[in-house]
Sequence to fold (419 residues):
Amino acid sequence: MTSPTPVKERPPITREGLLARDRADPLAPFIDDFQLPKGVIYLDGNSLGALPRATPGHLGAAAQHWGEDLIGAWNRRGWVDLPIRVGEKIAPLIGAGPGQVLAADSTSVNLFKLLHAALQLRPGRNVVLTEPGNFPTDLYVAQGLTRQTGARLRYEAADSLSGALDGDTAVLMLTHVDFKSGRAHDMAALTKAAHEAGALVLWDLAHSAGALPLALDAWDVDLAVGCGYKYLHGGPGAPAFLYVAERHQAAVQSPLSGWFGHAEPFDFAPDYVPAPGIARFQCGTPPVLGLAALEVGVDGVAAAGVDAIHSKSVALTQLFMELVEQHCAECGFEIITPRDAAARGSQVSLRHGDGYAIMQALIAAGIIGDFRAPDVVRFGMAPLYVRYADMWDAVIALREIMQSDTWQRPEFRVRATVT
Ligand SMILES: *Cc1c(COP(=O)(O)O)cnc(C)c1O
Fold:
């Protein structure tokens, strides 16, 4: 620990107290909506959300519709409307009015489409401004796109982004919540600063959608993308989503001008004419099974409510940090997640040079978090299925592993492909 907080005049945290807090938690019933292996504490919902119990049935039903209705299911079962329908369900979770959100493709592909759109909307400006710590796929996509378009990718440290906006900046492209540290940008303030410089914003909501309250319309956000398989529980490789503010839609086209974004795809006309509205950002045939699973996850988040989810997220992350300080002060971790609740997402990250092996030892003990190279141990708190008592059990297990040196065992140093 770099800076141990002074002991406050509060009753000490006990496991019994936390069990009582779980009993009083208004979100506690939602844990029964998820299927989790017994004996496991799952603190990796920021990487792959847990399985909603309703999802296998819903997937099975979609497969049945395929078997019964064959190609007729596209119309009869409303498959063709899924990208718009699921998009409309995601919209209120991110503070977006109707007609601006589409569930489609992956986050990476949507980034490509919207970054291209941003450059179209700001002819005469050629800089994409970002920070070097942005999520790698965001940087890679921007690198690929700028190589093709002649635009330039400029990196600026997270705390000096506003000052770096100038008359060349076409778009400020950022991820709201940093995947490593959990730090959250002030989306409203940075959006305002970008607009004052004449630039647009493109926000990646991968670590915020379904976990933090967002107000895209009220904050005047131009463009955004987000992930379906993290806090929206859409399942591995779930379709992602994109947001294009209504005021920009008529002026932009997707660089991936596939037939599902055509005004009349079933006219089979030889020339591309973009569909009106957000539908123009579709590309090819929608992944029906993936969208069916995503719809269940999104419905669950809507039923709980993002504000309630966020209140519990703040409490869980705060508790976890306090417990690390109280029980693991000698373990050699540095807490790199902001203490200010308004400046963090739904995760706590600890820095330790042996983080990989430590996380492997924790996973072997049934506490699943993850590791981000080179030295970050991450714990994601998905409030719909993480309990207050889990925070206690996880920190006590971590202390055990550190005190007993269990993490030094050779098998915990073997690197798997996915960390
Ligand atoms: C998880 C994540 C992605 C994922 O992109 P995919 O195209 O689904 O692989 C993108 N950006 C950020 C910031 C993420 O956290």
Q: What stands out?
A: Residues 106-108, 135, 137-138, 175, 179, 204, 206-207, 227, 240 surround pyridoxal-5'-phosphate (CB under 6 Å).
